[in-house]
Specification:
The complex is a heterodimer of chains A (366) and B (390).
Chain A: H1 4-14, H2 16-22, H3 29-36, H4 59-77, H5 79-86, H6 90-113, H7 118-138, H8 146-172, E1 195-203, H9 207-215, H10 220-223, E2 227-232, E3 237-242, E4 250-260, E5 264-269, E6 275-285, E7 292-302, H11 306-316, H12 320-335, H13 359-365
Antiparallel strand pairs in A: 1-7, 2-3, 3-4, 4-5, 5-6, 6-7
Helix pairs in contact in A: 4-5, 4-6, 5-6, 6-7, 7-8
Chain B: E1 2-6, E2 12-16, E3 28-37, H1 39-45, E4 56-57, E5 61-69, E6 81-84, E7 87-88, H2 94-97, H3 111-118, E8 124-125, E9 142-145, E10 153-154, H4 161-164, H5 170-179, E11 188-192, H6 196-207, E12 212-217, H7 220-230, E13 234-237, H8 243-250, E14 258-261, H9 271-282, H10 291-299, E15 305-308, H11 321-326, E16 330-333, H12 338-351, E17 362-365, H13 369-378, E18 386-389
Parallel strand pairs in B: 11-12, 11-14, 12-13, 14-15, 15-16, 17-18
Antiparallel strand pairs in B: 1-2, 1-4, 3-5, 3-9, 3-18, 5-6, 6-10, 7-8
Helix pairs in contact in B: 5-6, 5-12, 6-7
Classes of the chains: A alpha+beta (366), B alpha/beta (390).
Chain lengths: 366, 390
């Protein structure tokens, strides 16, 4: 009989993507597929490969599983012996010990059978708490041997530490199936030390039109809320100034480091800037002639020093929602020609009801 | 100027506020001649719509005279008499170009709020919470109308305010509700709720060729108007009769071919179901009470359509998904794409197919708006529709 594991292994070997990744086959996936005799089921469908890793449990967890079974068997089959061992009354505790034994058995089987026994490990932690509480109560009984029971409690406490450690580790681990499907879409994790913000919007205009708009950095301050102004200087450089608390001017120079017409523009702060900042905007045609998909990515890392740290704080406060709102305003500029105001949003600094503002409030915004 | 403002649950006032100004180049300012209180305004009035602020001007059904235009406004001019659709739409985005105006991608400055609650956002709406943009409404002396070349419809000479005012919302909404049922000859359509929108859904179902229309409500005066004015063939008072059994008997056991929910989030139900929903809603364990929707789904004929034009805000409880799935039902829904229907329905008014003014029961001055809200909310004095005049 073919075990599931063997079947799984063969699938992995047959999978051209896996071979490709393992470096055993550097040829194109299509060729490998033909050689392996597999074909896509749907014409035009992209390649998918999936593998699930049978979570290799660490030794501690495995030990705890077997420990549960051992203890459970003892408690179920020989509760009297267990009672004598831990120094409590045999008669009165038989049924309780049997019940605890059943619980241990269930946890043990769960831990050994499940690929990722997070639930059953926490179950053990709860069981430990119950055990310690029960023993604490038994300590007050007249016929208890306190020395033996103290030893038993110490032993349970030790096991509890292991149980908690293992449970916490399992909880923080991603499930073994997650992150192992190279064909599925995943959001990127930010690189170490860099904060990455990403937002995307679809605008109902051709890519040429949209690219031309982004080509002129003076447009940026019209829709990016955090920007005071962007002015082109010389040699493809521009001066960026952000809105900052009164008395503080934060500005830096940026240069365009990559520019592929109708595809992407990337700029980066210059060496001497107080901030390390990269912005990338990408353009691609939306499927079905539905305009242009614009993806904007901002990465920044404060440079050392007090100023750098202060700037970092301002920029770190920009949530993803705000970046998305920036792109929404950009979309309005492109599609409608201006950013729409409502009565409540016309005066940005105030919580304003949906009614016209007093003329003096409006003056303040002009 | 004077305006009707929301001052907390069950509390509206007519207060003095600054007059509107042109804020965007596509704006127009209207001097409001007539405005109406909508059934959906009662959701705001009763405090069931999140993100209302003290001082928000209410009203999304209004018409009036253009008194000022922004520099980009080309089609309408000062002096024009216009009726304004309640969704604000830019006319440029993909959704507007697809004729789905209430899904405009550019008209809600608070789109991010709606995205958090609904996943994606729809258009802005006049006087309907900050979630829908924070726009001042039209129950006021003046109102600012964004995208003035896109929404407002010029009213032909010779038509009264009362004949065209409801092109702003409830007539197109009722019509869309009927249209979504894909009515074929011989069809029976059931309409839950005989408020103004329900009345227009009934009338529209008839206009679109329904063989028989069944109207459901609990107020005898509303059921009477449904029969006598809107054209319903049969009415059911759900407090007297089991709706499901009555519909089965009326349709030979198969159920209506189209079921229209013209009730929305404050649905009433007799007995335990109604109590359950009221309790959960008051604890904020569900946003919306959905008894009518449940009944519409359960009653609908296999393979046909449930059309939802009543307003819902968030999450509902005990949704009969099994009934929907196993019986191949389709749910169609949406805030009305009013722009799509204004001209065709104006034609129908001009032809004499329908005179929407039949729903009006109360005419008041703007100053009396609080009284209007109160009467409408309590269905007192056989109130069906309140129109406020300048």
């Amino acid at each position: 009989m073919e075990t599931q594991q063997a079947h799984h292994n063969r699938q992995v070997l047959d999978n051209p993507r896996t071979q490709h990744r393992n470096g055993r086959n550097e040829s194109r996936p299509g060729l490998a597929a033909r050689r392996a005799g597999t074909q896509r089921a749907v014409k035009g469908a992209p390649w998918h490969s999936s593998e699930t890793k049978n979570g290799d449990k660490d030794r501690v967890t495995n030990f705890l599983g077997w420990f549960s079974i051992g203890l459970g068997l003892a408690e179920v089959l020989a509760p009297e012996a267990v009672a004598r061992l831990i120094g409590v009354d045999e008669e009165r505790n038989r049924r309780l010990l049997r019940a605890y034994g059943m619980r241990e058995l269930a946890a043990g089987v769960g831990i050994l059978a499940r690929p990722k026994p997070t639930y059953w490990m926490w179950n053990r932690v709860i069981g430990d708490t119950v055990d310690i509480a029960s023993m604490g109560k038994a300590m007050q009984a007249y016929d208890t041997d306190p020395a033996k029971l103290r030893m038993a409690m110490l032993a349970v406490a030790g096991i509890t530490v292991l149980d908690i450690a293992s449970s916490v580790r399992l909880t923080s681990e991603k499930s073994p199936a997650a992150g192992h499907d190279p064909g599925s879409f995943q959001l990127e994790d930010p690189e170490h030390g860099m904060s990455v913000l990403k937002a995307t919007v679809t605008v109902n205009r051709p890519v040429e039109h949209v690219y031309a708009f982004w080509k002129d950095p003076r447009n940026y301050a019209e829709f990016m809320d955090q920007l005071e102004s962007v002015h082109p200087t010389t040699g493809g450089r521009s001066r960026w100034k952000i809105k900052s608390p009164p008395g503080m001017t934060v500005e830096w120079d940026a240069e365009v480091v990559a520019d592929t017409p109708h595809e992407m523009i990337r700029w980066r702060s210059t060496e001497e800037s107080s901030i390390e900042n990269t912005g990338t905007v990408r353009f691609r045609r939306a499927p079905g002639d539905r305009g242009t998909i614009v993806t904007f990515e901002a990465e920044y890392k404060p440079r050392a020093g007090a100023l750098g740290a202060a700037i970092g704080k301002i920029l770190a406060a920009i949530p993803k929602t705000q970046l998305q709102n920036d792109l929404r305003r950009f979309k309005q500029l492109i599609e409608v020609g201006e950013v729409l105001k409502s009565d409540a949003t016309a005066v940005p600094a105030l919580m304003h009801p949906a009614q016209p503002s007093a003329p003096r409030d409006m003056e303040a915004t002009r | 100027m004077k305006a009707t403002t929301w001052e907390g649950p069950k509390h509206v006032e007519v207060t003095h506020v600054p007059e509107p100004e042109i804020l965007n180049s596509h704006d127009a300012i209207l001097k409001v001649s007539s405005t109406a209180i909508c059934g959906s305004d009662l959701h705001l009035f009763n405090g069931f719509m999140p993100t209302m602020e003290h001082g928000d001007i209410l009203g999304h059904e209004f018409m009036g005279e253009v008194v000022e235009t922004g520099r980009e406004v080309k089609k309408i001019k000062v002096g024009d008499r216009v009726v304004v659709p309640f969704p604000i739409a830019c006319g440029q985005c993909w959704s507007c170009r697809q004729d789905m105006w209430s899904l405009c991608e550019n008209s809600n400055p608070n789109a991010w709020m709606q995205e958090k609650m609904l996943g994606h956002h729809g258009s802005g709406v006049f006087g309907y919470s900050h979630l829908l943009g924070g726009f001042a409404g039209g129950q006021a002396e003046y109102v600012r109308v964004p995208f003035a070349d896109v929404g407002p419809l010029k009213v032909p000479e010779g038509l009264s305010d009362e004949q065209v005012l409801f092109l702003s919302d409830i007539l197109p909404t009722g019509y869309m509700g009927a249209e979504m049922c894909d009515i074929a000859p011989g069809d029976t359509i059931a309409v839950w709720g005989c408020g103004p929108v329900g009345q227009f859904a009934i009338a529209s179902a008839k206009m679109l060729g329904a063989e028989r229309v069944i109207a459901i409500d609990r107020f005898p005066y509303r059921l009477r108007i449904a029969r006598e004015r809107a054209g319903a063939d049969v009415t059911i008072n759900y407090e007297e009769t089991s709706v499901m059994e009555a519909l089965n008997e009326l349709t030979g056991g198969v159920g209506p071919d189209g079921c229209i929910d013209a009730v929305g989030m404050e649905s009433h139900a007799p007995g335990i179901e109604g109590l359950y929903d009221k309790a959960k809603q008051s604890m904020r364990w569900e946003n919306d009470r959905a008894a009518a929707l449940r009944h519409a789904i359960m009653s609908c004929r296999n393979g046909r359509t449930v059309s939802v034009i009543g307003v819902y805000s968030g999450f509902i409880d005990k949704f009969p998904m099994g009934s929907l799935m196993n019986r191949s039902l389709t749910i169609k829904s949406g805030q009305c794409h009013v722009h799509r229907y204004m001209k065709p329905l104006l034609e129908r008014i001009l032809n004499g197919d329908i005179d929407p003014s039949f729903v009006i029961t109360h005419r008041m001055k703007l100053d009396d708006a609080p009284v209007g809200y109160d009467i409408f909310n309590h269905k007192g004095d056989d109130c069906l529709k309140v129109v406020l005049k300048a």
